[in-house]
Task: structure prediction
Amino acid sequence: MNLNHINVIARYEVKLVKRSWLFRIFAILALLFISAIMLGYQTGIVNRMDNLWPRIAVSSLMPFCNTYFYNIAQSVIVVFLAGSFLKRDKKLDTAEVIYVRPMSNADYIVGKTWGIVKVFITLNIITLLFTAFLNILINKSPFDLFPYLFYLLTISVPSLLFVLGLSFTAMCILKNQAVTFIVMLGIIGTVFFYLTDTLYGVFDFFGVNIPAIFSDVTGHADLRLFLLQRFSYLLAGIGLISMTIALVKRLPHKPWKIAVVYTFSSLFLLAACLGGLLYILHYNHQLDLRNQYIMTFDKYADVPHVDLLVNDISVTPQGHRLAGKSTVKVANNNAKPLDKIIFYLNPELTVTSVEMAGKNLPFRRDHQVIEVDQPIQQQEELTLTINYEGKISENICYTDVLTEDYLDTKVPQVFWRFGKRYAWLSNTFTLLTPECIWYPVTIAPVNPGAPYNVRKNFTDYTLTVHYEGDKTVLSQGKSKIDGSVITFTNTSALPGISLTIADYDKKALRVDSTDYEIYYFKGHDYFSKYFEPLSDTLPGVIREVKNSLEIEKDRDYPFGKFVLAETPVQFATYARNWKGYTEYVMPEILFVPERGISLGQDFEAERRRMNEWGRHGGPMDETEQNISLFNRFVSSLTSENSQNGWNPDNKLINKSNITPMLFGHTNYISSPEYPVIDIAVNNMMNTSSDQGFRFWGGIINDKQRANLYLESHSFETAIGDTELKPEIFYELLKLKSAALNNYITSQITQEDFNKFLKAFFTSRQFQNIPFDTLRYEIEKRFGIRLSDFIDTWYTASHTPTIYIKDVDANQIVLDEFTKYQIKFKVNNPSDIDAIISTEVMQGGGGGMRRGGGMSFETEKKNYIIPAGEAREIKIISDERPANISINTNISHNLPTSHNFNFSKIDNTISDTTSGIYPINPDVFKPNPNEIIIDNEDPGFRTIASNNRHKLKDLFKKKDDEKYKNFMPWWMPSQWTAIAADYCYGETINSAVYKNKGSGANAVEWKTEIPKDGYYEVSIWNAKMSGRMFFMDRRRGRHKEERNQTYTIQYDKEKESVTLDLDEETEGWVSIGNFYLPQGEVIITLTDKVSGDYVIADAVKFTATEE
Result:
């Protein structure tokens, strides 16, 4: 090849590309689009109230976002430019001066490629410079030049060369420009939308859907693996471009030159394939190791274990290695002697010796398991010393997590990926948690085969760290520094400890008897300026927040210090239901990912919102703002869930929730029969109410899905069901925890039970507690036999069906006082007991309509409804009730919660009784004068048109859920079932709806009239007009007609009645009286309506005299 020729061709190609209108349009659109994205998504210029900080908290986020969008757009436009090069050149009009000169095909192809690459890299540099300008001067986020250059060279350039080479090759083979465009765009779309995660991302030639974000402290999560993938595509691009040299027929080729070119290109393509193979094998090797560790855990799961009473750990960090010595005291609390002692330790830590009383003991190593050949008698205690050294394998972590979740690197609500790290051991940063088993333990941290059958082992830990560096060493307990030796001593037994060594700065404050400390990486103090004005008042604010949390959770903070410690952005953990907390939440220490990126807090935006919106009563001064900022930050650390997107039912478990420090790190309830009882009791004490306002009244959420699951599965089955989504199991766990609480508080007050629990667990803090002890103390204190309930609670594989009727409220006048009685009837025809809960909202004159609620004061009660029996429940209220919520809890009912509004209470009675009273179940028999056909009944059917499906329907995933939530901004094109309490149903309150149409779609109710006579025909108006206010406001109106036409067919007769459902009340609405002969009657409703949608629920025939 001739470099001079290549440069000449490249310069000429640059001129041609610049003159291309296609490129000019692309360049302008790319600059405008990326500028708009950067301004709107990563600066506060467009929306000053937006939570910007989580998108800019680390220095690599802004350049990556730029590269992400540019790279995708670049790949598409390159297809058009590269695919047309042969066609354009063959015209001999624009490139004749080059095309006819005696230059080799290699010079020609390489020169054209270099010219195109220069143009696109120049454009990419311009967009990066604009992003850097915004990065430095506008949003003042962390800036580092390295990611800008890194992403340009490792993401943009390899994908550009690969797409160029693939397009050149495709054009040479297919010899048709249009076909080439279609094939290339198909490849790009398939990879981007369907293959990004296939085989761990090996097909992602864009390089934007594999972990690419850098920590400003520790760098990339796995830089070698990232570079291997990108280098493979760089080689593939070079190989394909080289192959084009042989495929282009511009000049005749000598056979030996063709052979050389094909050999050269084949070697590059082979090297690229080898790189891709090594990339896949790396992950396969990780999974193979992980599977070996899982099998080892399962192998020893049923082997009797000793209890670890004391663990005196001494470690010396040595770069990427660790030398350690643990002196442990173990006790055999099993019912029989043991012939060996089992320990667990990270599999890459080599055990050099196990000693007892100065003598070496024989031992065997099976991956993470250490079998020590030392008998131990029942109730005997022994002291052993274990010496070990080596590296830390992260593959041992989270072996109980599903493989797809373990491999999933996506971050909720954003498109970038941090990658996952579970431990660090290096000179730059060290972070070791109990999950990586960095010190010997006798109880495995996980049980992959039975995740809920894992005991906590409360141990007296002492940690001594021999460290000669200048970084901060952090762990649980009180620290003492003696030269290069740092000792941490704990006053309480703990379930585990962590070790962190980092270049930290520290802020500390002591309030009352608790030390509050923040450890953050040097240069990462983004928060102090917001709280410095509170320096005088901060102790009082902290005291108030701590007291409020302790009162809300009815538990005192058990530790002498509370620490926030910053970690790299890639530090990953999982919300595992069996554990009740994540590895972010250690005893005394909360690990916060870099600059608080995952907490969703933007102090600057929050302050702007306060300045803009103020508060009720006027603007907030600076002190009030800072206190509010602090309270909101603490709230983010104590909330149970964090919202994922706009849908309030789409929530994520908050991995930084610190409330487990009050529960999960302080006690453990052990039970071989009910291994889930510990986390159930913790949830019972720690779970807050999830009642919230639903604008459109949707109830199909994970809680309801959990309830549906329990209709055919037991709690016992659920804990071993690996197909059950963690989010659904979490809601199932909360339902079962609430059921346990409701059973007890149906017999005693909640206040008495809370006092008992607090006293019981406080007196047994940092201990393993047999469940029989808790069961005995409850029976001794309250006379409640949990044994009568707990087995059914755990093993029942079906749920009761509850019928509710005659909900009413009346006033009672006693001398000068007025009280109120709410009463209703409930029937449980099932073979299993049910528990219902009521909550009366007092103090309103009607409040909001059914389906919403405005609570002033509430009173919650629980009632047991025995199997096969009916009850009448009467509740006395001192204040006027606004409404009552009746929750059937774990039941076959859908939805489980119903709100009944008392807009008027006119009737006065003298009955002052309250309580629960047996009644005859016959009162729930159907009215013999009524015939009701609901949409759930066999007499109801939907009629759909035979319209062809749209192309996009072919790619929709099958949805097994029968019921959906009604959403005012999206109307389905097909009949769709919804479930909500404003729909009719004895146990399942549902209806079907769709968008308005031409009348080709319909529903039909069919029944048999038993005898000739007059019948009043009614339809159930599942009125959603109150929920449509949002839709009306969006469209600039407040009222529209919503006419639906019902056609009644009987005895060859046909009559139609049109109703404006918005003008009718919710519930049964009469459409008229009809004389109906004995025989079949059909009512039809089509989708030809005047409103936005048509809804069909139930119809009723009531026999009348005339």
